[in-house]
Specification:
The protein contains 19 helices and ten strands. The protein is an alpha/beta fold and about 375 residues long. Helix 4 links the parallel strand 1 and strand 2. Keywords: Iron, Metal-binding, Pyridoxal phosphate, Thiamine biosynthesis, Transferase.
Length: about 375
């Protein structure tokens, strides 16, 4: 728990928020002119940066499944955890130290507010992944009851996620207090009696159970119309034909990984577990599969109404930008089409779905995974929702 007294006041001031998020800022001077010149000429190794400060999670399963299956077709790709500072994923892309970030809409809005020339090119989170965790018996489906209460965050930057989520549910966010309880300890802090609630998300719910953190949840995936995390790149890269072509191939790998996971979630979990043995030991087959099924629900959304994996619902994004402008998270109105694009989506989804299904179906599962009843797990995905 932070001992900064400013965190005990309602909300986190804009000034404090910028101080926190500025702490891990990578400047152009630190990289040097040579680094920028090399980046401008060609991607070379294409670097994707996590928003979580770690890669040892199931959230990125499409990449690991696609890499194992050879779907990146010889592209030179790299995954980096980045700092745990919630805004590093956009800062590093902005200054050229990474090529693609995976921010929440709130952190993306931080980038826009601070003049970063970034654009969302592949919307992973078709449904709102974020949730509010409560200790058992203390939850409510009426989030207005959080007024006057304290919400725990892993990073102060996550206020940009929580404020619009609450405001869209009619909460007066000026009456909500936030405490930065640290990554990865904010869930443990809630279980230990600190604060009244905590920010969480799909996939993490299962990981918390593995750590003995058994909460009940107000689920955004069931109750919110806001979008979730997305892939962003520098806007200028989309003006470069070679880089645009590379991005289409790269995103096709992710889309194929998403399709693979949808067709055989257990095989996708195994691909991640092979990469991270400690994660495998901590979660095990059942909770790993539970986690990935939660995320598949978010990433897939209502595919019948989408233009394919990664397609932006511009109405949902516009609703988000209108909400954060109303609450003062951004000072100027934002038009969704100006900062989000579906231009790369047709090429990203131009792959042989029958082949991917055959690849997924052809995986020989280990004994622990083969024994799982996936349909039974699906039937209980939302048992921890507040009743």
């Amino acid at each position: 728990m932070t001992k900064d007294n400013s965190m005990n006041q309602p909300g986190i001031s804009r000034r404090y928020f910028l101080q926190v998020t500025g702490a891990g800022l990578v400047t152009a001077t630190a990289l040097g002119a040579t680094g920028f010149k090399a980046r401008a000429e060609a991607y070379g190794k294409f670097t994707w940066i996590s928003p979580r400060g770690t890669l040892e999670v199931l959230d990125d399963y499409p990449y690991w499944a696609a890499k194992k299956a050879g779907y990146f077709d010889g592209l030179d790709t790299d995954m980096q955890p980045g700092p745990s500072d919630g805004t590093a994923t956009v800062k590093f892309v902005d200054v050229g130290q990474a090529d693609m970030g995976f921010p929440s809409p709130g952190v993306f809005s931080f980038a826009i507010q601070n003049g970063m020339k970034l654009k969302s090119v592949f919307h992973m989170g078709a449904r709102d992944t974020f949730s509010i965790a409560f200790r058992k018996g203390e939850g409510s489906n009426d989030l207005k009851k959080l007024e006057g209460k304290t919400i725990l965050l892993g990073s102060a930057a996550w206020q940009s996620i929580t404020d619009p989520l609450l405001a869209a549910q009619g909460v007066d966010i000026k009456k909500v207090k936030y405490v930065e309880a640290g990554w990865p300890t904010w869930g443990t802090a809630l279980a230990g009696g600190q604060g009244d609630a905590a920010l969480s998300w799909e996939g993490l719910r299962a990981e918390w159970i593995a750590k003995g953190l058994d909460f009940e949840y107000w689920l955004g995936v069931k109750n919110s119309k806001l979008p979730a995390n997305t892939f962003v790149v520098r806007s200028a890269d989309l003006e470069d034909p070679d880089k645009k072509a590379f991005l289409e191939k790269y995103l096709r790998g992710w889309a194929m990984g998403l399709e693979f996971g949808y067709q055989n979630p257990r095989a996708a979990v195994e691909a991640v577990f092979e990469q991270f043995p400690t994660l495998a030991k901590n979660l095990g087959p059942e909770l790993g599969t539970t986690s990935i099924l939660q995320q598949i629900n978010v990433f897939r959304g209502d595919m019948d109404k989408r233009g394919g994996w990664g397609s932006h619902d511009m109405a949902s994004w516009q609703g988000f930008f209108d909400e954060i402008h109303k609450i003062g998270q951004i000072t100027n109105p934002v038009k969704a089409e100006d900062v989000c694009t579906n231009d790369l989506i047709p090429a990203a989804n131009d792959f042989d779905k029958a082949k991917v299904k055959a690849d997924a179906d052809g995986v020989k599962l280990s004994e622990g995974f083969a024994a799982l009843d996936v349909e039974k797990i699906k039937a209980h995905l939302f048992d921890s929702a507040v009743k």
